[in-house]
Amino acid sequence: xxxxxxxxxxxxxxxxxxxxxxxxxxxxxxxxxxxxxxxxxxxxxxxxxxxxxxxxxxxxxxxxxxxxxxxxxxxxxxxxxxxxxxxxxxxxxxxxxxxxxxxxxxxxxxxxxxxxxxxxxxxxxxxxxxxxxxxxxxxxxxxxxxxxxxxxxxxxxxxxxxxxxxxxxxxxxxxxxxxxxxxxxxxxxxxxxxxxxxxxxxxxxxxxxxxxxxxxxxxxxxxxxxxxxxxxxxxxxxxxxxxxxxxxxxxxxxxxxxxxxxxxxxxxxxxxxxxxxxxxxxxxxxxxxxxxxxxxxxxxxxxxxxxxxxxxxxxxxxxxxxxxxxxxxxxxxx
Length: 334
Hints:
By secondary structure, the chain is of the alpha/beta class. The chain contains twelve helices and eleven strands. It has helices at residues 3-14, 29-44, 78-83, 106-113, 142-153, 159-172, 183-194, 199-207, 212-222, 240-246, 292-297, 316-332; strands at residues 18-23, 48-52, 91-95, 117-121, 132-135, 226-228, 233-238, 268-274, 280-286, 302-303, 307-312. It is globular, with a radius of gyration of 19 Å.
């Protein structure tokens, strides 16, 4: 990624009048932050900017948005999107992903509507969805790439935008404890704090706002903990019954995988979540030499070396066995 790429992105945006901004399913802080920042900037440029999510926004990111964001499949169908119910768009911006598998139903819209597409991402996994792509796999968060775009384009970073981008960088670094935290992260966050981001308020909104239902779901998950390979690999799972019993929602699983990494011996962690359609979503984390992105790629998933995910076929015990064998293979080589 270089200045030519940024220039192409700015030219693509300048030619547009109505922009649809979206991101991967299971919205996280980085995805949400990018969407807010870009929609604010495009609106300031006099363009129509519409954010669309592919799954519900977790309530703890609601502080970033003044109004509710429509969800594809809940508030409107793919057919309604194609018919222009949400508006006619001459540009689509996809943030924090470049993979068909993370854009359920929306990837069909892309294939049928054929809009110009700008991708802004920081993942290694890439399907080449964009006509123009700003992808920096060395960046800790997509929000950091968006900040670079703002600097290149000389767009104003308002306190609201600073708050959104700080949220993105802070959450994708696990509030600065993941191994993707480097000096560039702290420089960016210093700049964003100077521009109006409030770190203590962001932390409270995200990490100190559990609902009782989410807390009970975490407890249910912790009760399934299994340690393998002398405690180096931890697995946990959640069934549909767990959601029914606790009253929690699917989005309440975000970041719960990090809990078992408090155990000193754990180098790799996996959380298996049974989805309403029967599939098993597997989230993977590594704080050692195991490359979980390679493991996720075996199931058409992806992500980063230390954080990745994929969808597996049921039952959950078979999904566990598949992942366990791949983790064992990598641990043997270390």
